[in-house]
Amino acid sequence: METYGLESEMSKRHRIGNNIRAIRNMKGISQKALAETAGIGLRTLSNIEACRTCNPGFMQISNIAEALNCGMDDLIYREDPEMIPERDTLIQVEPQALLKTLLEFQGQVGQMIRNIKKLERGSL
């Protein structure tokens, strides 16, 4: 029997609620604290986590993601919420280390270009 997207909407709603609850629990945050930080009502958060809310709004999900320090895509699409990295750890890179890596890469690219030119001339 064709349900015309009903199952996928229910599945997505279930995944969002489960991901929010799982991430919140992993971080040791209470529902009340998360609701306050995200600027939404405690009952609203409870309904989203329990999959009783048909369509949580964009801003609600955005605010919850911000409060949990994760991306909206992690709440909506992630199959395994335990594998979600902290956003801050994704962008914390020492500038000097990054510059060193980029310079090394530039040198390697330069060497590859020189080798290609030698191959083209037949001298490698």
Describe the structure.
- This protein has helices at 6-26, 31-38, 42-49, 58-68, 72-76, 87-91, 95-121.
- The chain has 124 residues and is mainly α.
- The protein has 2 domains: 6-85, 434 Repressor (Amino-terminal Domain), CATH 1.10.260; 93-124.
- The longest helix has 27 residues, at 95-121.
- The radius of gyration is 23 Å and the shape is elongated.
- The termini are far apart.
- 17% of the residues are buried.
User: According to CATH, what is the topology of the largest domain?
Assistant: 434 Repressor (Amino-terminal Domain)
CATH architecture of the largest domain: Orthogonal Bundle
What is the helix tally? 7
Q: What average pLDDT do the residues reach?
A: 79
Pattern of helices and strands: HHHHHHH
Report the C-alpha radius of gyration, rounded: 23 Å
Shape: elongated
Residue share in β-strands: under 5%
How many extended strands?
0
CATH top level of the largest domain is Mainly Alpha
Which structural class should the secondary elements be placed in? mainly alpha
Sheet with most strands:
none
Percent range of helical residues: 55-70%
Total discrete domains: 2
What's the name of the CATH homologous superfamily of the largest domain? lambda repressor-like DNA-binding domains
